[in-house]
Amino acid sequence: MINLGPYSGKNCPNVRFHPTVIDRILEGTALLIVLVTWISIYWLYTQREGALLPAVWVMGGCSIFCFLLMGGLAYLPVRFINFPIRVTERNAAVQYLFAIRLTRVMNIILLLVLLGSVWGLYYAFGKLLLLVSFVLLGVAFIGYYILAFKYK
């Protein structure tokens, strides 16, 4: 269930959305971040001669889990999404598109947070990536709500 607001999508028409090139690029970017996370873990493992903190392995596992979970949520039917505005037949497709795109963007941002956490345990630039990720998180939510209310 994706909960973005108080209005349920249960009474909406069954909207089907076929992923476009932009959606595939977002999914590919998320996969690339997971691969970079695991390559970073392997590189840290070789540089530290096998002495990694257990949190690094946990974050690597969480990156795979989050990639699969958030990637799966992007294919949920409209009835499993709560929207910030009342959804009608006229605006159901646009609101569904915005919610699905937000889910894909959130997948990327969450994976960047996990990558920044892995790097942040050993390098200062990891903390900078965390900060940038949290700023992007706020921008994504603000942008979604602005678009959702604009196209209601």
From TrEMBL:
Keywords linked to the UniProt accession: Membrane, Transmembrane, Transmembrane helix
Transmembrane residue ranges: 25-45, 51-76, 105-122, 128-147
Protein name (Swiss-Prot/TrEMBL): MFS transporter
Native source species: Bacteroides parvus
